[in-house]
Amino acid sequence: MSTPTVDDAAKVLAEPSAYADDDRLHAALTHLRANNPVAWVDNPPYRPFWAITKHADIMAIERENDLFISEPRPLLSTAAADDMAQEQLEAGMGLRTLIHMDDPHHRKVRSIGADWFRPKAMRDLKVRVDELAKRYVDKMAEIGPECDFVTEIAVHFPLYVIMSLLGLPESDYGRMHSLTQEMFGGDDDEYKRDSGTLEDQLAVLLDFFNYFSALTASRREHPTDDLASAIANGNIDGEPLSDVDTASYYVIVASAGHDTTKDAISGGLLALIQNPGELDRLRRDPALMGTAVEEMIRWSTPVKEFMRTATADTTVRGVDIAEGESVYLAYVSGNRDEEIFTDPFRFDVSRDPNKHVAFGYGVHFCLGAALARMEMTSLFTELIPRLESIELAGEPVLSATTFVGGLKHLPVRYSLR
Fold it and tell me: Would you give the distance in Å from CA 224 to the centre of its chain?
């Protein structure tokens, strides 16, 4: 076996604060892609892992979903958090979403909600999405000439979309927003619940479970025509979903389904502000909206990583990976890979092809990718023609994270028709 190559630059991947500092993060990732694309990281309180920073290697690992599996370590968290999660699962209380599962169980569970994200369902939902896009651009006009685009617009629009899809009452939206912030914000002082301890994180999870357990009981007793009912009444091989899998399904749809889109929308707007020539191109040629949305998603990459664990001894780019060792798929790095993207640090609304890995790849490709694209298209199609001017009104602020994140504040000054 080869001796692990240690590179201090790779430690940024196990430092939540690095994701709040784009310059620092991308300098480290650019170095790793060029000099150490399969790097050993041992940075307590996290267990060691291999950092995979090249696009081709990320895709190859995603394709080999029997050799590299999600369980038991689908994402980067501290050793103590990993242990707590396992204990909770064994007690019948933990979180086991689609990202935690492997085939064949993953494929069966995924199929329960898949129809709600297919083209026909997206077409049916588009009217509601367009209505909400207009509502929030109108709101932006009403509260102008300045706002915090993240907290006043970008958070709420995708949340309303996903809650509409689930069929949840509008009175619960605020609660769902707070819980989502706390779940993904455990590394951020502004977002985390109380002190952000493991006990605080567990309390957030229990709040999610209590809410969705009541929802499951209601939908089983009185089925409705919404995604929540499809999940509550779903079954695998003739058996109802377990309580853990049912609650976890809701959690991943309700939380990841809106928080990631919020990050892509706000990151996309910031990129347009910082690249006014690209904003002008998009304003002059609305036909570029499809490629522009893909570029916004590549640029922001809301899901920073997933992890996989080797089921047998193998190699990646000539480096020995032992059975049981974990690899960290650095999507942010893959989406700036110089071998895949021409001038990868240029924001280009006409970039084509754009083979980004922001939605993952292979069997775990994001279930809600089509919905996220539609939401972003609707919002920017409504916003851009009405936008007479826009500039920063303060410093943008990124969240500290190791998993899902992006801008948490984007103060802007603007004029809207």
Answer: 28
DSSP string, 330-379: EHHHHTT-TTTSSSTTS--TT--S----TT--GGG--TTHHHHHHHHHHH
Three-state SS sequence of 70-117:
CCCCCCCCCHHHHHHHHHHHHCCCCCCCHHHCCCCHHHHHHHHHHHHH
Q: Beta-carbon neighbour count of residue 35 at 10 Å? A: 11
Q: Write the DSSP assignment of 223-264 as a string of letters.
A: --SSHHHHHHT-EETTEEPPHHHHHHHHHIIIIIHHHHHHHH
**Judging by DSSP bridges, how do beta strands 235-236 and 314-316 pair with one another?**
unpaired
Q: Are 99 and 70 in contact (CB under 8 A)?
A: yes
pTM > 0.85: yes or no: yes
Residue bearing the bigger pLDDT, 107 or 93: 107
pLDDT tens-place string over residues 35-61:
999 999 999 999 999 999 999 999 999
Quick check: helix, strand or coil at residue 322? coil
Determine the Cα–Cα distance for residues 387 and 410; give it in Å rounded to an integer: 16
Total Cβ atoms within 10 A of residue 331: 24
- Token pair belonging to 90: 């064994």
Confidence of residue 141 (pLDDT cuts 50, 70, 90): very high
Tell me the pLDDT band of 174, cut-offs 50, 70 and 90. Answer: confident
pLDDT average, residue stretch 285-289: 97
pLDDT > 70 in the chain, percent: 98
Cis omega (within 30 of 0) for bond into 145: yes
User: 3-class DSSP state for residue 140?
Assistant: helix
pLDDT at 202: 78
Cα-based distances in Å from 316 to 74, 88, 96, 253, 307: 19, 33, 28, 32, 14
pLDDT-based confidence at 352, cuts 50/70/90? very high
3-class SS of residue 305? strand
Task: Collapse the DSSP code of 38 into the 3-class scheme (helix H, G, I; strand E, B; otherwise coil) and give the result.
Answer: strand
- The gap from C-alpha 176 to its chain's centroid, in whole angstroms, comes to 16
Mean of pLDDT values over 211-231? 91
